[in-house]
Amino acid sequence: MNGVLSILLDVFRQPSVIVAMISLIGLAVQGKKISDIVQGSIRTMIGFLVLAAGSGVVTEALNPFGSMFQYAFHVQGVVPNNEAIIGTVLMKYGSEAALIFFFGMIVNIVLSITSRFKFIYLTGHVAFYMASMLAVIFNVAGFDTLTVIILGSFAQGLLITISPALVQSFMRTASGKDDVALGHPTSSGVLIGTLIAKLTASKKHPSKSTEDIKFPAALGFLKDTTVLIALSMAIIYAVVALFAGPQYIESHLSNGQNFIVFVILKAAMFSAGVFIILAGVQVVLDEIVPAFKGISEKLVKNAKPALDAPMTFGFAPNAVLIGFLASFAGGIVGMVIMALAGTTVVIPGIVAHFMAGGVTGVFSNGQAGRRGCVVGGFVNGIVITFLPLLLLPVLGNLGSANSTYSDADFGVTGVFLGYTNVAGGKIVSIIAVVISYILFYASSILLTRRENSKVKYAIEN
Hints:
By secondary structure, the chain is mainly alpha-helical. The protein has helices at 2-12, 15-29, 34-72, 82-114, 124-140, 145-166, 168-175, 187-198, 225-244, 246-252, 259-298, 317-341, 350-391, 408-424, 426-460, and strands at residues 79-80, 119-121, 181-182, 304-307, 403-404. It contains 15 helices and five strands.
């Protein structure tokens, strides 16, 4: 039994395998030819692996930047990074996290079948990170192992069903379609940033889209997003590198390579990673959306696949870069405020700001153009800087670690469940989960009734 469970957990921890299975099932229930099923499934898996490879290249390019930034400006503190903290968590709570993740996926499917929120969360690795945080929160609250797994699974399933729904209206506007959703724990910060960005929209003085930026003829090469990203990042890297100094970079980061050459190559690598991501995104969208239609029709009617953050980048590539830079600026402002206030300092996590800031930039641009892109990205940066600070006290011994969970949904969920326990103990934590489910289904019923009323009114008039 343990061997079977181990295999299942290994499968569900691999998002490329999950999306390939979804593609296979979707094409099969549509009665496609065997050759089409095999081709679609393999292309989906390869497309997702290309996407993941691009994300890995981006992360590798960004890691030295964080080290340079800390050294250059003499900043020490907590760095929000999911990959950094997950290893520590799994050493202590690995079994509970794996089971919460597995059963949480089942709860997600059940909730999608029984409510109007029909989103199947396919970004397995970040869902696993969420499961690990829930294991920490409920263990710190003092629950026994079985209760941790039960409460964690219900909380996990509910979160990964709600998270895509929060920003789906923005996804529709940005993409012009309604066939995919955002499956990444950035939704809370993206929602707040995009809502505030929307307030800046003006009918009298509308802000143009980031994708309509006009370049002088001599700078026509900047119309190429790959070139624009590479040059922009090269400038940013070079500035921070000059503050850090060549001695530090060449002795600690570049293995003796000239520091200017090193940072220029890292900037180019970052742009290459984005290029790879966009290529993978296109393949996955071309394959998974038609295949998912079969599952939607047969198993969960009108269900949408919730996919990783980079899936949105192709909708507005310029907005990704602007949103990222604005979010990082918000992170720096938040860090300065913490330093002046004498609290624990949360150092901007560059990968988190790129992913969350990029999505916020795309969605905010769809709502309020360039102005909204900058405002939304900046607000998101503030949000994902202060939420980790609030999360630290409810993580037990992990709260004193040098890293913590980075994305907004981790912060919102952890703060809600953690401080609920602090305020009222175990029973209040259980009540909080139960009330969350009541509100979930109440919202589903109310929204369905409202939609039905609109349809009825349209027919009668």
